Amino acid sequence: MSAPITVTIGPDGVTAEEVLAVARHGARVELAPDTLETVTRVRAHVDELAASDTPVYGISTGFGALATVHIPVDKRTDLQRSLIRSHAAGMGPVVEREVVRALMLLRAKTLASGHTGIRPVTLQTMLDVLDAGITPVVHEFGSLGCSGDLAPLAHCALVLMGEGRATGPDGRERPVPELLAEAGIEPVVLAEKEGLALINGTDGMLGMLLLALADLRVLADVADITAAMSVEGLLGTDRVFLPELHAPLRPHPGQARSAARMLAALAGSDIVLSHHEGDKRVQDAYSLRCAPQVTGSLRDTLEYAATVADRELAAAIDNPVVLDDGRISSNGNFHGAPIAHVLDFVAIPVADVASMAERRTDRMLDVARSHGLPPFLAHDPGTDSGLMIAQYTQAGIVSDLKRLAVPSSVDSIPSSAMQEDHVSMGWHGARKLRRAVEGLRRVLAIELLTAARAIRLRQPLSPGAVSAALINALPAGVTALGPDTFLAPELAAAETFIADGSFLATVDGVLEAHLD
């Protein structure tokens, strides 16, 4: 049995892989050597300012539009507690556990940077909550992606105080004091500046971007193969995927990678070879011929977004921030625009890849364009409807994806009495991108099911080794030919086959043998 994974955080931050390990796989978190010493030293600057008569935002003043209100020393603990309680104002559906864990880890990463003025005990308590598997209940609505993901982070901070709502390691919601006591965690009483330090970050939208990037890299690989299967199902050619047509002529790295994967997936296909004899078609339809260009563009967009994410992982987002020389300065780094823009950007090629996959599916079901396949791949057309309505489902999802591709970041609703007069809406961009990831996976699952059945209908012609391996590995109902049956479970099985990693586990070894 392998040892538990431990992620170490400190001034150097964390990697995307470490965020995924904590968010999805329950990795434990510990502080790097000397981190507590650094945090303690920086905290001393905050304590010094707190004891002075000089007003400092977040330490001895109110917040947002109330920043001009001086707070006396005897009310500053109340100030921090009131900040968290009032900002924990989320509504709507509960956000997924993996998102909350990513958000908390990323906030802890910034707290450990030595730029927030947090006390060591507060930082350690957040890590203890994470390691105990306690997950604060965070809601869908409450962040405008500016001044940080305020409400989501406030719901997390409330749990550190022994308040709010949370679930335990078993996923059941129980009273927060009970969960903390069971884990041996003492609630914290927040001191000056700590309320802001806990909530003034872009951690939720960054966490969701990292999760989406991981999922979409997988789905780009899946899309190459389902597209190649559709080429086989439609008696298409593999010649348009030759390497000399891509990198030398149009040097987009994503396009070249997708073309190479499609070419390798079609290697040895008798179905593709049949295209060379007695076929009067000069060119395949765009949805077949141009698949590498579209999926490749998704790949390149993901790489750009990953560059932005890496920069954010190296950032320390707070306001005010403690500089290396001890000065505490207000700033605008909490504005989520850099993340919000790429969240919106990624949603566009996601919708486009799905749209192209739906067109291939529709072509396989249309007797006028499928080159010899039965209408809707039905066993007894008329009596049976085959996959007719599966394409309806796919089209409905694609329509939703097009709406989700409309950017959130071009919108802004001023808040806090016009003090916060331009916001990024990045949290909303992240939430819709998560929906888009699910939608793309379902669209590809329907293409997978359709192409697998179309290939089986091409017998006695045999597919390439990649398609053959997938058809053999898929649950029997997914590839079944014959009279109509209850279709929804088969669509769900195809989606699960992609989501649980079975698809790529089946493909990778076979594909590798044919890649240059």
UniProtKB/TrEMBL annotation:
Record-linked Pfam families: Lyase_aromatic
Catalysis performed (reactions): L-histidine = trans-urocanate + NH4(+)
Enzyme class: lyase
Protein EC: 4.3.1.3
Subcellular localization(s) per the UniProt record: Cytoplasm
UniProt keywords, alphabetically: Histidine metabolism, Lyase
Keyword NADP recorded: no
NCBIfam families the UniProt entry points to: hutH, PRK09367.1
Name of the protein described by the UniProt record: Histidine ammonia-lyase
